[in-house]
Write a structure and sequence with these properties.
The protein is an alpha+beta fold and about 180 residues long. The chain is about 25% helix and about 35% strand. It comes from Enterovibrio gelatinilyticus.
Length: about 180
């Protein structure tokens, strides 16, 4: 998985995030995925028999590592970084990188640091007050393939997290509806 991590996580780190053209994107099949405001986990689960999570990395970074945009969205503080791959029926569909400010990992949210193979969306969207905002999109080229990505801020109990998601080549976002 180290090549996988190098290829896809590094692509997320290098992404040029832009605000989407909502009116234009809402009319496309991909737009439904990129603009999803609820749980991506649930959306992916609906497309397979088994959705699994493999943790690629879990580590802390100092606030100096964050970009100016990340600081604007999360605050100026150290974060826990969680990097995972979600696979549907053993096919990698999504590479995700989440920045979780240390202030988010308090009280009821302490368990987010210990999710392991539990999808973040499953944990976050079990809360009645969970929400998603600040959705941005990117077009990336990985290993010669044009891929779509999105970044959004999740809130749980008024505590933020920043999730970057890269839709891998065999993800349902690219499949013909039928």
């Amino acid at each position: 998985m180290s090549n996988f991590k190098r290829l896809y996580v590094e692509a997320l780190l290098a992404a040029n995030w832009v605000a989407p053209d909502w009116q234009l994107l809402e009319k496309t099949k991909e737009g439904g995925w990129l603009l999803e405001r609820h749980s991506m986990t649930e959306r992916l689960k609906a497309c397979c028999r088994t959705l699994t999570v493999e943790v690629l990395g879990l580590h802390e970074v100092g606030k100096e590592v964050l970009s100016n945009n990340e600081r604007e969205l999360l605050g100026d503080q150290a974060c826990l970084v969680r990097e995972v791959v979600l696979s549907g029926d053993d096919t990698p569909w999504l590479c995700a990188r989440t920045l979780v400010p240390m202030s988010t990992l308090t009280e009821r949210e302490q368990d987010i640091a210990d999710l392991g193979a539990v999808p973040l969306g499953q944990r976050v969207f079990n809360q009645a007050n969970a929400r998603r905002d600040a959705i941005e999109v990117a077009h990336l080229v990985c290993d010669g393939q044009a891929l779509l990505a999105r970044r959004s801020r999740l809130w749980v109990n008024d505590k933020p997290m920043l999730v970057s998601e890269l839709f891998l080549p065999h993800a349902p976002i690219y499949q013909e509806e039928g």
